[in-house]
Amino acid sequence: MRRRRRIGAYGLCRDGRRVLLVQGPAPAGFPGVWHLPGGGVAHGEHPATAVRREFAEVTGLSVEVTGLRAVLADVVRLVAADGRVAEHTDRIVYDVVPTGGRPRAGPDGGGDQVAWVAPDDLAGLALMPFTADLLGLPVQPLPEEARLAPAEARDAGPAAPVDRHQRFAAYGLATDPAGRILLTRIAAGFPGAGRWHLPGGGTDHGEQPVSALLRELVEETGQLGRVTGLLHVSHRHNTAEFGPEGRPLDWHGVRVIYRVEVDAPTEATVTEAAGGSTEIAGWFRPDEVGRLARTEVVDAALAAI
Question: Kindly report the CA angle at 283 between 260 and 258, in degrees rounded to 5?
């Protein structure tokens, strides 16, 4: 079974106690199943921009992003025209409020159905697992290996160039009881070499972002931490990113940043195998961090607290 990854952005939009949901049309992989409005993040697109675009396309509403609600991942099995696919989706969910327009069906007449749903009516609906989870409802499994019609293929449009890559990663602003900040320095041969970075990195297929972050924390710094909050989501698009592949890539990275507490800090030590992207790790006082050569991920995290 082939593996595929995608990144999606969704919005939790309320009208009093009612929540706005959309229902997929019959040709979709899961016809009749309701979910929060949203969809795939295009290459080079910020997830917040994607959720505004998707709301306009699918619901007819213009929305403003007011906050970051949750980040989670799931894997579904689909049957596509070219075989079976295990599709991993990283889902970024924002709080949004309407600023204009009126709810409507999709523009092609056979698109998603749109409805404001009251709390008492939610229990009777078939919901995508991530939507049920976010609304505090029991999660029901989806049908195994649902069929994905060719017209509904996730990667619509021309095939992406071989050297175009989209990556989802989880990072942590980790601190200890003394207020020190844990950083890692990027090894030679990787983008940002020599700069200090937050611990973390790309998530694996089937891996939740929090689990990935705690794994990376051990591999890159030797620390055991606990995630205490969701800080920020950012992205970076470089059409000529040069890394260990030895050639420039059209690279789009989407990064989620968490708050992490390390209650019993030890000397920061890289434990991953040689050849990784981290050369050393260390603890720094906040005033020391300001004097380091840092990545924009570090600055984004510090600005969000």
Answer: 20
What the block records as the tokens of 31 is 């016809």
173-195: per-residue pLDDT in tens? 999 999 999 999 999 888 889 99
pLDDT tens, position by position, 112-171: 789 999 999 998 899 999 999 999 999 988 766 566 554 444 444 445 556 888 999 999
Tell me which H or E stretch contains 209: helix 209-221
Q: Which of 66, 131, 57, 119 is nearest to 97 (CA)?
A: 66
Contacts of 291 (CB under 8 A, 6+ apart): none
Q: What is the pTM of this model?
A: 0.89
| 94 to 61, 71, 80, 289: CA distances (angstroms) | 15, 9, 30, 30
Q: Which among 200, 191, 192, 135 is positioned nearest to 170, based on CA atoms?
A: 200
Q: How far is CA 92 from the centre of its chain?
A: 5
Amino acid at 51: V
Is the pLDDT reported for residue 34 higher than 90?
Answer: yes
pLDDT, tens digit (0-9, with 9 covering 90-100), for 258-289: 999 999 999 999 987 766 889 999 999 999 99
| Alpha-carbon distance values, 147 to 23, 81, 142, 143 (Å) | 17, 9, 12, 10
Helical residues (DSSP H) of 18-96, grouped into ranges: 47-59
Let me know: does 54 contact 20? Beta carbons within 8 Å.
no
Distances (CA, A) of 109 to 32, 82, 112, 193: 16, 27, 9, 51
